[in-house]
Recover the amino acids of this structure.
């Protein structure tokens, strides 16, 4: 477990919520954190009329760091490409839309985007 924790914390060269929890509280603390976060996320998804997710997965920031259009016309990335976050995707391929969830200890982000990752739209950004 020590090797795995070190590996996760250095793989992307950024911060890893999984490695931090495992290092300081053990695997049990990390699993408990994930379950509490999953419950919190599912409440937010239900409030938006989006289906629930069953689990959260470790995701490297550069793969989930989309550029969101702001009202000013500017496009903004809200994540760090080098961090490892927890997240999931809900895909409605027949509609050509996906919902993405990305979170860590400090925030929960819910967005929508086309199946190919284009046209992202920020739905919820909640500090924790």
């Amino acid at each position: 477990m020590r090797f795995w924790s070190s590996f996760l914390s250095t793989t992307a060269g950024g911060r890893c919520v999984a490695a931090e929890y495992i290092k300081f509280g053990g695997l049990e603390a990390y699993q408990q954190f994930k379950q509490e976060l999953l419950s919190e996320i599912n409440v937010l998804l239900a409030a938006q009329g989006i289906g629930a997710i069953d689990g959260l997965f470790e995701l490297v920031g550069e793969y989930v760091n989309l550029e969101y259009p702001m009202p000013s016309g500017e496009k903004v990335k809200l994540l760090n490409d080098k961090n490892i976050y927890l997240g999931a995707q809900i895909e409605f391929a027949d509609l050509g839309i996906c919902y993405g969830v990305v979170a860590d200890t400090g925030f929960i982000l819910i967005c929508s985007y086309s199946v190919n990752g284009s046209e992202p739209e920020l739905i919820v950004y909640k500090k924790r």
Q: What stands out?
A: The CA atoms of residues 42 and 53 lie 7 Å apart. The longest strand covers residues 84-92. The two ends are 28 Å apart (CA to CA).
